[in-house]
Amino acid sequence: MNVTAILSVSLILFSVIDIIGSLPIIISMKKEGVKINAMTATGSAAFIMLLFLFFGAAFLGLFGIEVSSFALAGALIIFFIGLEMILGIRFFRDHHEDSGSGSIVPISFPLIAGAGTLTTIISLKAEYDNFSIIAGIVINLIFIYIILQSTDWISRKISPQVSATLRKVFGILLIAIAIQMVKENM
Fold first, then answer.
1. Rg (the chain; Cα; Å)
2. pTM above 0.85, yes or no
3. Residues 29, 47: Cα–Cα separation, whole Å
4. What is the crossing angle of helices 3-17 and 115-124, to 10°?
């Protein structure tokens, strides 16, 4: 077990996933009535990330999809989430009141296990062993679960003005990230 490799992978994934930066999005969605189940979101993100670790490049290749095209699709979803935050327009709706659709789209994908995370996981395979990558994924998922479980408490600690400002700022940042992803993958 290489602790340095696990720590490196964990930090790389932490910076790409950016669950702290996604907090205003998650809080905003919850305030709008979108149901988010921390276990469902974390579990489905784990499934997606591990699936991509072992089969990502082959899976995309099977459909003739390049990693860059996959990243562009993720960029579109991120762009629309940013528009939601800035303009107050709802693109992602929870059509089934008892479903956890907010937990999977857009929380698990693309916020947690988005195109950036998945392409990073594929890239990490060139430098790190599978055990280190899996350990890094698990460490991040534990942190993500704790954050998702704490969003109600966190949102009570943030004033409505701060929350509205953060929502707009992070909306603009998400749009900028989406545009950057498009530029990098064109």
1. 16
2. no
3. 23
4. 160
CA distance 170 to 58: 34
DSSP per-residue string spanning the chain: --HHHHHHHHHHHHHHH-HHHHHHHHHHHHHTT----HHHHHHHHHHHHHHHHHHHHHHHHHTT--HHHHHHHHHHHHHHHHHHHHH----S---STT--HHIIIIIIIIIIS-HHHHHHHHHHTTTS-HHHHHHHHHHHHHHHHHHHHTHHHHHHHS-HHHHHHHHHHHHHHHHHHHHHHHHHT-
Q: What separation in angstroms does the CA of 143 have from each of 10, 42, 113, 147, 148?
A: 11, 10, 14, 6, 9
Residue of 137, 121, 105 whose CA lies nearest to 71: 121
- Pair 40, 103: CB distance under 8 Å: yes
Q: Is the dihedral of CA 128, 129, 130, 133 positive or negative?
A: negative
Confidence label for 98 from pLDDT (cuts 50, 70 and 90): very low
